[in-house]
Every structure is written in C-alpha cells, then in structure tokens.
Amino acid sequence: MSVSTTARTEPEATPPATASPRPRRTLSSRLTGWLGNSLVQAFLIVVGLVWVTPLAGLFVSSLRSARDSAADGWWTVLSSPSQLSFDNYTSLLGSSGITRAFWNTVLISVPTTFLVVAIAALAGYAFAWLDFPGRDWIFLLVVALLVVPVQIGLLPVAKLFGQLGLFGTIPGVVLFHVAYGLPFAIFLLRNFFADLPREMLEAARMDGGTEWRIFTRLVVPVGRPALASLAIFQFLWVWNDMLVALLFADTSSQPLTVELQSQIRQFGSNIDVLAPGAFLSLIIPVTVFFAFQRYFVQGVMAGSVK
C-alpha cells in the first residue's frame, strides 16, 4: 500500500501596499492656484465694496446738513469731517410723525413675522406627518395660492376690512400680511419637515410622546434653520412694504415707508429728513439679516426641494 502525499504550498505573502507618493505640484500649478484664489477674493471684495458704497453714502449724507449736501457730494467729508453731526437724527427722532411711524412699523412687522412662522410651522408639520382627510388636496390648494399676486386681493380685502371695521388699523395690515405670507411659509416648512427621519418621530411616539410634545421638543429645535430663514424672509418683506400699508393704513397707523413717501411728496428733496429716515429704515433689516445669516442658506436649501 502506497501512501501518496501532496505537498501543501503556503500562499505567498503579498508585500504591504505602499502609499503612492503625492505628486509634487509644479511652480506653474501653484502659481495658477494662487492667482485663481486671488482673483476670486478680489472679485468678492469689489462686489462687497459696490454693495457697501451706497449704504456708506446714505449714512454720511444723513450726518450732513442740507446746505452741505446741496453744495457738494458726500465724499467731501474725507477732507472736511467737521460737516458730520447728529443734528439730523435729533430733529428726526423729535418729530412725532417719524417716531410714530417707526413704532407702527415695529408693531406691524414683529407680530406678522411671529404669526406667520408659528402658524406655518404647525401647518407644515401637519401636512408632513399627520394623516387627515383631504390632506393632499388642501396642500395642493396652498401651493396654488403661491401664484396669486397680492394686487388681486387688495380691493376685495379692503372692502371686507371696511365692513369689519379693520380698515386703516394696524391689525388690518397685520392680518393681510399674515394671509398672503402663509402659502409660501407653509410650503417651505412642509418640505423641510418632510425630510426629517421617520425613525426619529416613530421612536418618540413609541416613548409615549404626544404630537404636541414631539412638535415642540423635537421638530422645532431640529427645524430652527428653516424657521430662522423664514423669519428673515417675512420680516424683510413686511418691514420694506409700502403697497399694502399705503392702501390699508391711515395717518395714525402708517409705517415708516409710507411716512417717508409722504415727506418726499410734501417737501421734495428734503435731504436732512429723508437721509436719516431712510438709513433708519434700512439699518434695522440689515441688522436682522446679519444676526441670522448663518441659518439663512441652510434653511432655504433644506426647504426648497423635496
């Protein structure tokens, strides 16, 4: 009996893979990259200067007297800074009409922004995660309202507000802005909330959380970027509005934009009043935008597509 043995061959050990050396960048490639970054930075600086120059000119004009503004351009303060003073702001804030218009603008913009964000957040969560009869049809109706221009509803709503006693009042202006701001707000927040992980909400329901508790403790904190971007949109729209306020507000409830327009109509080129009033009207929304700018792009991009 012969026993045949087969030699067992061990697999050859493969040498460890060595990392390929990083290719050295040539002088021309590094110079091209540096020039490319420098050109981009220079372009951004130029765009920033173009955007800031009118704002700086308006601010400087608001600190000059009417005689100095009529004599030469605002850039002459670089050679004679003694022209600058806060007398225009003192007289402006001492005017009862401007002060009342400024607080009317605050009383219109802040409640409108809060109501639009609060109602749209509740409606967006309901359209995204709650099942109720006619949900899709109602949401389709909300989307259809996006294409309705604001000019169509001016006269019918003005007639309705006249019958209800709201015409010429601040609550009437607020209600109009809320009604026409909700379709876009609901559309934006519904798309954002619909992208939330279903497992996260199901786990919260399994832990005994009610819908209201899930919304306030989970959805709202996660949706803070979308809520902040919507608040910026709505606040800027209402603060700078003149068409709605021009029709629905009277002399006791008109905002700053209408008051400045009436100043132009009455006094013509009264630069010592118009320049500080325009800068005061401009600096508030600019401050709000820069305060929440880190939420702006993230919220808009998250809620713009499904």
Q: What do these coordinates show?
A:
The chain is mainly α and 306 residues long. The chain folds into two domains: 40 residues, no CATH class; 209 residues, MetI-like fold. It is built from 14 helices and no strands. Helix 1 packs across helix 13, helix 3 packs across helix 13 and helix 4 packs parallel to helix 7. The N terminus is likely disordered.
Number of domains: 2
CATH homologous superfamily descriptor of the largest domain: MetI-like
Instruction: Please give the alpha-carbon distance between the first and last residues.
Output: 78 Å
Q: How many β strands by DSSP?
A: 0
Indicate the CATH topology of the largest domain.
MetI-like fold
Uncertain segments are 1-10
Sheet-strand content, in percent, reads under 5%
Shape: globular
Largest sheet: none
CATH class of the largest domain equals Mainly Alpha
Structural class from helices and strands? mainly alpha
* Count, helices: 14
Give, in order, the helices and strands: HHHHHHHHHHHHHH
CATH architecture of the largest domain, please?
Answer: Orthogonal Bundle
Question: Would you tell me the overall average pLDDT?
Answer: 79
Write the layout of secondary structure elements.
Blueprint: H1 27-62, H2 66-71, H3 87-93, H4 96-129, H5 135-144, H6 154-164, H7 170-194, H8 198-206, H9 211-222, H10 224-239, H11 243-248, H12 256-267, H13 271-291, H14 293-304
Main traits of this protein?
2 domains, MetI-like fold, mainly alpha, 306 residues, single chain
